[in-house]
Design a protein that fits this description.
0% strand, mainly alpha
Length: 177
């Protein structure tokens, strides 16, 4: 049935075919144009789409992969978890106070405080990984709690320094006006 349709199609198109011979050098000019297009054409769309897929995959991988700290905390006893949560809530509270401060006079203090907190956080993560390798140990738990207490005390001092800067600034402004 399909063969009949094809035969009918070719019969209906009979004498309509372009059978002229192209001018001399046509094939070479055609090949030259093809080669130029091939050389110029860079698969930007393909490269960009591959890069986008890789970036998205990397982002999802890092976002959903639990950190070593999270894995170690999951293996803690309920008492240690409770202490961890308590201190972390205090730390978050103090950090929220500090992050609200955006005065130029306190920016240096806040930047330095964040660097110090980052160092303390790295130390804490080392302690968590030690605990996950060796198991719960009173020395490690004590060091972890000490680290968390140090962070809270440090943040409280930073908040106090920021408050002192504010007071000094307001006192200076009152005297100069």
């Amino acid at each position: 049935m399909k063969e009949k349709n094809l035969e009918e199609l070719f019969q209906s198109l009979d004498n309509q075919w372009d059978i002229e011979t192209p001018i001399l050098g046509h094939q070479q000019r055609f090949m030259d144009r093809l080669n130029v297009k091939k050389k110029r054409r860079f698969p930007y769309k393909t490269v960009l789409s591959i890069a986008a897929v890789l970036l998205i995959s990397l982002g999802i991988y890092t976002l959903y992969q639990p950190s070593e700290n999270q894995i170690g905390i999951a293996n803690m006893s309920p008492e240690v978890k409770e202490s961890h949560q308590y201190f972390n809530s205090l730390i978050k509270k103090e950090l929220a106070i500090i992050e609200k401060e955006n005065a130029p006079e306190s920016k240096i203090i806040v930047r330095d405080a964040m660097a110090q907190l980052d160092a303390l956080d790295k130390d804490y993560n080392k302690l968590v990984s030690e605990m996950s390798e060796e198991g719960e140990n009173t020395q490690i738990i004590y060091a972890m709690i000490q680290n968390l207490q140090t962070r809270v005390a440090f943040l409280q001092k930073v908040v106090q320094q920021i408050e002192n800067i504010k007071k000094l600034k307001s006192n200076y402004n009152e005297k100069t006006t």
